[in-house]
Design goal:
alpha/beta, D-Maltodextrin-Binding Protein, domain 2, three-stranded parallel β-sheet, 10 helices, 19% strand
């Protein structure tokens, strides 16, 4: 009798575990994507070379190619949904997309709202400087002065970096990084602070209108963001990242957008 009771308890436990596993699978975003046949990605076009618009109006870039590779691995179509930065996390949380792949830095504040994958690239903040300050400003420390005006993008990690490291300077915030960088070119700001990849490309295109202080003064890992409580999707994403970094796919995409410049002529 005792053995029968133990067997019944074990069977019940197995049944409950199976039901729990099935419930998790049914709730999984990965399962929804496979059933839908489409991966829906939130991204904000305007962050070179991660997410931009080409001359035909299509969103292209490093993030987009990674997302396309991901969709191909899933065997589904892809829908890149252009989303304003200040609303991109709310869009994810209200299921307007499955994932954010948009050069998003992993921070504790954001991590309270969303879960992040392992980092897929690490960048840092650098400075685009007015040529008139050449020799006078050599690092971010020199800009920590009330006589200087710094421009950057509202809500980006550069916003918080300026407030932390250059708190004495006047800070002007803009909706897009391109608007903020243009302030330096037009003489309305002394410096623009933003991520290294964007600044390196902008400086190369500016033909001497800005100087690039290219030593990063922050450490910023970027990750894909997903809704909380979805270990199934997270498992797939981290394994996917490990796979493309091991089989050469990641290197090929990286070289195209960060080491080559053929794409510059195709951008708006």
């Amino acid at each position: 009798m005792k053995k029968l009771v133990i067997a019944a308890v074990a069977l019940c436990g197995a049944t409950l575990a199976s039901a729990s596993d099935n419930a998790l699978w049914e709730k999984s975003t990965l399962n929804e994507i496979l059933n839908r046949g489409e991966l829906q990605v939130c991204a904000e076009a305007g962050y070179m070379p991660f997410d931009m618009r080409d001359k035909s109006g299509n969103i292209v870039g490093f993030d987009v190619d990674i997302a396309k590779s991901m969709a191909k691995a899933m065997g589904v179509k892809i829908d890149i949904r252009n989303t304003a930065w200040d609303g991109i996390i709310p869009a994810l949380l209200t299921a307007k997309c499955d994932i954010i792949i948009s050069g998003m830095t992993i921070t504790p504040e954001r991590n309270l709202k969303v879960n992040f994958t392992d980092p897929y690239i690490v960048v840092g903040q650098t400075i685009l400087l007015s040529p008139k300050l050449q020799g006078k400003v050599n690092s971010y420390r020199d800009l920590n002065d009330a006589k200087y005006t710094i421009a950057t993008k509202l809500g980006a990690t550069s916003d918080y970096a300026v407030k932390r490291y250059m708190s004495k300077a006047k800070l002007n915030l803009f909706e897009t990084e391109s608007e903020a960088a243009l302030e330096v070119v037009n003489g309305n700001a002394d410096a623009f602070v933003y991520d290294l990849p964007y600044n390196a490309i902008y400086a190369a295109q500016s033909k001497g209108k800005v100087l690039h202080l290219d030593e990063s003064f922050t450490f910023e890992p970027l990750g894909f963001a997903i809704r909380k409580g979805d270990p199934d999707f997270m498992n797939f994403l981290n394994n996917y990242l490990a796979q493309i970094k091991g089989d050469g796919t990641y290197d090929k995409i990286y070289q195209k957008w960060f080491e080559g410049d053929a794409w510059l002529s195709t951008i708006q």
